Amino acid sequence: MAVDGKSEPLLIRVEDFEYHKGCPGCEIDRWKHDHAGIPYKSLMFVWIIVLAASLPISSLFPFLYFMIDDFHIAKREEDIGFYAGFVGSAFMLGRALTSIAWGTAADRYGRKPVIICGTVSVVIFNTLFGLSTNYWMAISSRFLLGSLCGVLGPMRAYASEVCRKEHQALGLSTISTAWGLGLIIGPAIGGFLAQPAEKYPYWFPQGSLFGRFPYFLPCLVISALALVAVVSCYWLPETLHKHGKHEKFDKTITVKVIPIESGKVQVSEPESPSCEQSLLRNWPLMSAIILYCVFQLHDTAYSEIFSLWATSPRTLGGLSFSTSDVGEVLAMSGFGLLLFQLILYPLVEKSLSPLNITRIGAALTILLLTTYPLIAQLSGLRLTLLINIASTFKNILSVLIVTGLCILQNRSVSQSQRGAANGISIAAMSAFKALGPIVGGSL
């Protein structure tokens, strides 16, 4: 384009960015500026850490009834479910009380220290839960595990910060998928490995450690994976900006890329921390959190109801499945979810916005769940095929909804508030999920 007889470029391209030496957040920004690709290495470590943190949440459900029975705290068999509900909810109660504090700590001290502390707590307290010899030791170890494992909120902030904006959906879907797989694989591990002296007496004699502690083996396997995740944290780069006190209110001028025809160059100046909006008054954030809590309550209740429904006799409308049958369905669902994440999710994310993904996923979930009573009327190969497809599809929709809501939450706040915002989200969600076992079991 010629202006006053001179040739002008169509765009103003800005190559100079201000970075602070020694700031880990600036180093990540520099890397994202120089590399347009997906940070596969960082996302792989994210996947391992989130999977290790999610496995203990639901791994106890297949054997919790038998564990409470072994503690001899229930006077009647009908009371076992009452005591089991408190153990199942102790983790979520602990997480609800401390998630905001962990999110605030991640904003102040960095994502990495909080992630390391949370992963180490999984190794310690999940192991202690497997070695529980009485009811109060079991409920205390679960409560402490939930209180100290403040990983999920900082990991969401981390995944949105380590990726360029066009890859943020993939980063957050990595967390959603790893979390969903953990909630699916966890019960399978608990179901197959609990009481090994009874199931596999050749390898685990009654007098062995696993004979004396029948629920230690699944917890040990999960703790071992968490130990691998702790080692993985070494290669996890920090993403929080640390510019020092004297630079706290410095303003960085960023010249945006705009067409020269407009005759203007747009300059933006970030707001100082004193101008940041209160999180509780941030309606885009709070509305996404409210929807997230409602769905998580539904999802937790579904997880418990599905196992009860599948193992119930056909005379009561169930499927008459064994615990092994339920484990196989959950394992197939996890495999299908992994394939969807690797192959189809990028196409879905490009075609739909986060808000549309959430809306469509919620609508399809309602339609899908109405088919379950019809599936219960089938038998044989048709039953096996359809229940596996329905369970897989349900978990895929769960990941789509959670990912869409997480993207909306993280994009509604600045980086300096992202840890606290995710902490509020996890705290509220945990409170709702603590009600899930009680509501689902009662229904």
From TrEMBL:
Keywords: Membrane, Transmembrane, Transmembrane helix, Transport. Residues 42-443 form the Major facilitator superfamily (MFS) profile domain. Pfam families: MFS_1 (PF07690). The keyword Transport applies. The chain crosses the membrane at residues 45-68, 80-102, 114-133, 139-158, 170-193, 213-236, 289-309, 329-348, 360-379, 385-408. The keyword Methyltransferase does not apply. It is found in: Membrane. Its main location: membrane. GO terms for molecular function: transmembrane transporter activity. It is a multi-pass membrane protein. One of its GO terms (cellular component) is membrane. Signal peptide: none annotated. This is Major facilitator superfamily (MFS) profile domain-containing protein.
